[in-house]
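Re: that chain you flagged

S.,

Sorry for the slow reply, it's been a week of failed gels. I finally had a moment to sit down with the sequence you sent. For the record, here it is as I used it:
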Amino acid sequence: MEKFEIITGKNNVCTAVQTGEKEYRIDLKWDIREKEDGNVLIKLFIPCVDIECAWQPTILAARNINLKFFSMLSASAPVLSYLNNSGNSVFLLALSEIRKRIDYDFAVVEETAMIEGKISIDLNQFEGMSEYSFYIYIDETEMPLYEGCAEIRDWWRKKLNLCDSRIPENALLPMYSTWYSFHQHFTADELERECVLAKSMGMSSVIVDDGWQTDDVSRGYAYCGDWEVCASKIADMKEHVQKVHKAGLKYILWYSVPFVGKKSKKWDTFKGKFLKIDDGLGTGVLDPRYKDVRECLIGTYKKALLEWDLDGFKLDFIDNFTFSEDAPANEDMDFSCVQDAVYELMSSVKRELSAIKPDIMIEFRQGYIGPGMCEFGNMFRVVDCPENYTMNRICTVDLRMLSRNVAVHSDMLMWNENESTEGAALMILNVIFSVIQFSMRIENLKEEHIKMSRFWLGFAKENRALLLESKFAAYEPQHFYPLIKAYDEKAEIIGVYEDGKIVRIDQLDNIKIINAKKSERIYIETDFLKEYNVLVRNCEGEITNSYTHSFNKGVCKIDVPKCGIIELF
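Prediction finished late last night. Pasting the structure tokens below so you have them in one place:
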């Protein structure tokens, strides 16, 4: 890729200068008086050769070659890749502009069998400026996608001098979430009993989700914004948090950051300071460009932290902070760009809360998981995908590959009470390379489900360093990662999610292979001769076989129960 086609308005100038083997600087200059001339379109053309599909970290299971999305601080990430049939990246693109909104539209041109990529920038975001520069990174080397993502993470960090969030130890341990298990229907007594059980199952924290602030259970957001505890559910929040702490769990509380509901007392206070109003959800979306809006949000979280001794915050719906033409900038604002205001808000939230509790946990949800958000949150959770373990696996891997120095969390786990033990185990095994968020009513679980869950949660804790903090490889992204491996120089853990896959193991002294499927066989390939002790367990952790096996060069079949595990040592 040697040049770009750049289309500007008559009063704008945009040039591309190559500054490295894979890096280009885009220089923009414009006349700030010509608002109607405020768009720049950068085109690039990619030969559609050895390309099967596309990847981007917020398109979920879509792998279409035609790719349309946008990125900004509060949504998505400025990166994409085209993959070949081997699952390798053959075209990798990233931008250094991680705060302002950039629009991407990549599509096949039928007449030429080329992919035409359009990168569009609205210069009106740069209020008061007349010039700006950013960088585009393009790598057309064939390489595994996980290696390409690591390359981009390093490039962002160095180019933008990004800071890392501190990851508290508890952010890396299995957690209990109240959302799927209780939704908005709970009392303090019920939560406290469940927390005792969660601790006995191996969980370290509880995330109390939507419902603590209202007795309305209609699942809307009309009562958000005041953030006063619903007394009929939790009579004394400080005492309630103390009881949970006594049970041995940290306490994380949910807030829908931008929402002020129509039935809240704050509605009249902030009327006229909304980016938009969502009648379907019964809420307004606050405009962070107003200083008093930001101060209210920051003060709310500080007050809760100090008065209730919380350990973390689940800060939801930040991706709703998007510009709306119905809310133009005015002189009462101290920012003209919404994303600049979001940056100021989140910087202040992180700074103020961390000053009180350095190990504060802050969870963001998939959607707002770009490189800029890694500075503010230390837990990135997968988008809601109830009962969908394949989607949960895809998204945990996507976040794991791209996110820098954060704890990647699964979506909360749930299953039907009549599910088989192996079927329930699939929910856990598909997210074993992330931090597990568990959301089943433990007091109602069948004994075999409890036994299975306790085994795998214990496995996740015991092997945390290898599963979450070691080297990581996820194969065949075009097929949704049917093989995943975490490894270091001494050990490796491999997850197999599709039947018929051949697992190639390294000559290490400690190997664990998870049979995350319902067939009862694993195919192992070696290019060395070595004798291993083999220990086989079923999905509840019971040993079903133990023997010695001499591996020769080639492929062999090992029998293993459905959703069980093989240990080689």
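What I noticed first: The radius of gyration is 25 Å.

Talk soon,
D.
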